[in-house]
Amino acid sequence: MTDFTMEKQADGVAIITWDTQGKSMNVMNQQGFHDLEALIDDALADDAVKGVILTSGKEGSFAGGMDLNIIAKMRDDAGDNPAKGLFDGVMGMHAILRKIERAGMDPKTNKGGKPIAAALPGTALGIGLEIPLACHRIFAADNPSAKIGLPEIMVGIFPGAGGTTRLVRKLGAMAASPLLLEGKLNDPKKAKAAGVVDEVVPADQLIEKAREWVLSNPEIVKPWDDKGYKMPGGAPYHPAGFMTFVGASAMVNGKTQGAFPAAKALLSAVYEGALVPFDTALKIEARWFVNVLMNPSSSAMIRSLFINKEALEKGANRPDIPDQKVKKVGVIGAGMMGAGIALVSAMAGIQVVLIDQKQEAADKGKSYTADFMDQGIKRGKATPEKKAATLDLITATTDYAALKGCDLIIEAVFEDPKVKAEVTRNVLKVVDKDCIFATNTSTLPITDLAQASDRPEDFIGIHFFSPVEKMMLVEIIKGRQTGPRAVAKALDYVRQIRKTPIVVNDARFFYCNRCIIPYINEGIRMVAEGVAPALIDNAARQLGFPVGPLQLVDETSIDLGAKIARATRAAMGDDYPDAAVDEVIFWMEGEGRLGRKSNAGFYDYDDKGKRQGYWPGLAEKYPRAKAQPDLYEVQHRLMFAQVLEAVRALEEGVLEDIREGDVGAILAWGFAPWSGGPFTWLDIIGTPYAAERCDQLTQKFGPRFTTPKLLREMADKTQGFYDHFGQKSLAA
Ligand code: NAD
After folding, report:
1. How much helix, strand and coil, in percent to the nearest 5, is found in the chain?
2. Which residues does a 6 A CB cutoff place in the pocket of ligand 1?
3. Are residues 378 and 488 in the same domain?
4. What is the tens place of the pLDDT at every residue in 702-732?
5. CA of 545 to the centre of ligand 1 (A)
6. What pTM, to 2 d.p., does this model score?
7. Which GO MF terms does the UniProt record name (predicted)?
8. What's the number of CA atoms in the CB half-sphere (13 Å) around residue 290?
9. How many Å lie between the centroid of ligand 1 and the Cα of residue 506?
10. Residue 48 sits in which domain range?
11. Cβ of 268: how many Cβ atoms within 10 Å?
């Protein structure tokens, strides 16, 4: 069976239908390209064929893109000289798309050729848009839920099958930039307004409209193949184009801090391609695309942010238990977290009972959903009907009796074990015996909290991050006695609300906070040592972290840091390793510099809460050292502080699957996404080098950098984490 079939119809129109076997959406693979090329050759050679319509056999979609499993492995599969192997492969792809674009025209006169229309029933992403861009006219069905665009940049690559070169030549660099650099997706009408597709037609007339056009003897020479073509908005040496490229370069570097190789390569391909004729531009695009594929970051990002993320979302670590979909959820505590949890649950169509101590507090929690929906309506993303339906699903009350019939409870009351225990007991008096009880605690051990329940096997941690509606990761924590049904319930719930789950075992700070705290602490330690604060935060940002450690502690608040420090110190006694950090934060707390919320922290803020620069008082208390450390040393301290904690979490069995460690780190705290996560980063730099660096850092800065036993063993065998932990960890 082949994914492409052709039907030559009596009126001379050949319809090529793409229908990937065994998939709900079309994806492209190497064989697909060959099959498509063979059909195009056949249609162009057959005198009875006047033109071609390329469409999809899937209802409501054209194609989801390239099979990313293939891209992730392309470098390994490209032979002894991978760069050359990849370049030849990419140029082969260009040749096929260029054949569609030229459609048999005379190379000199542009005469002849057959019109080829793309007819998109719906979603067209990645290669699923690059192929249509090579066609002569793109028709899209008026399907508002369809997404059209080139999202490659989101997984660390860029459109490398001519999509970059064609889009820039079709729209101009300025108009193409949000689509290429941000991977912005549009519905068909917006895609038409942006100039990406040429016509939006009623879905039931899609093929007929394309047919009319094909048979109308249309002009098919692409503007860039015509004499006198000028790039919309101007090429780089045109005064207007010059400004675009200067601005784009600054914007890309400002946003990415140079940490994402694909963005830089894309910009280079666009700039250099704009200076030369089309076919040379395709070659330049191919070279930069190969450059990105050769960088380990691209396969790392694809593996973590696409393949493994999806595997976790599909339940890679779900116990084999019948469906546990949630019908009615009780949320106890309508504060910041509870209000967000109610919102995302109702948005997923789940009935919600939202409880607080006072009716006003419960109502305020519910109003968070109303405000969120109002903003959605303003931005055209929601309707008043959807708002009413979502609010209808939420009952805000103080009455525990309303929890009857709930199959899941999520508790988000104050972070106080006594309050949580009382709430647990009161809830269990009302709900049925099969209801699962979850706590959203961020610091208290699940096993301890489960003591308030007479069914600890049905007690679990479901740890959301703030703000709930924005943060895509949910950390599920198994207490010592948590049973498989509770895990399945939590995973099915996270799937319903369309977030990404990781499942970890119970331990101090679970997985994510356990790694974030040493990151923040390492930054604070450096302040005490006299390292310039700007060097600390910028070093982190240049690694691709969304915020540096000092900015992060200002955002999460210094008194919270001090509270956690006191609790940890009390629990650990003499083993407590962070006295040097506490000295700084206790002093800051004493000075009333509590972070953004008090408009005063490591940074100064203006009246509107805008950051103004570092607080000069910091330098008075901790004078800058004359000799500042090397950037790489600062970066390695910040990186190793986190990744060693991740390795220890794995060694101790808190993490059971390195995929969860990698995906969780990127989604929870923005761990250098280009690296693919802590374990992939260690694999990229190589475990022997990692162990050597740990030894050096330990010597210079102390035992917190001691090489964990597991890492040492792997270094001795020159083994990577994804080798060591086998096939299960590599892909779904
Ligand atoms: P919050 O103070 O904003 O809200 C807590 C709410 O619980 C308040 O509205 C309070 O009135 C209510 N409450 C207290 N006792 C109650 C009781 N007996 N019955 C019913 N309602 C009661 O706190 P928050 O930031 O939403 O945090 C809630 C929980 O989530 C905590 O366990 C916290 O550790 C955890 N958490 C917080 C964050 C965060 O970033 N804020 C992130 C992850 C987890």
Report:
1. 55, 15, 35
2. 332-338, 355-357, 361, 412-415, 419, 423, 440-442, 464, 466
3. yes
4. 999 999 999 999 999 999 999 998 655 444 3
5. 28
6. 0.91
7. enoyl-CoA hydratase activity; long-chain (3S)-3-hydroxyacyl-CoA dehydrogenase (NAD+) activity; NAD+ binding
8. 19
9. 20
10. 4-294
11. 16
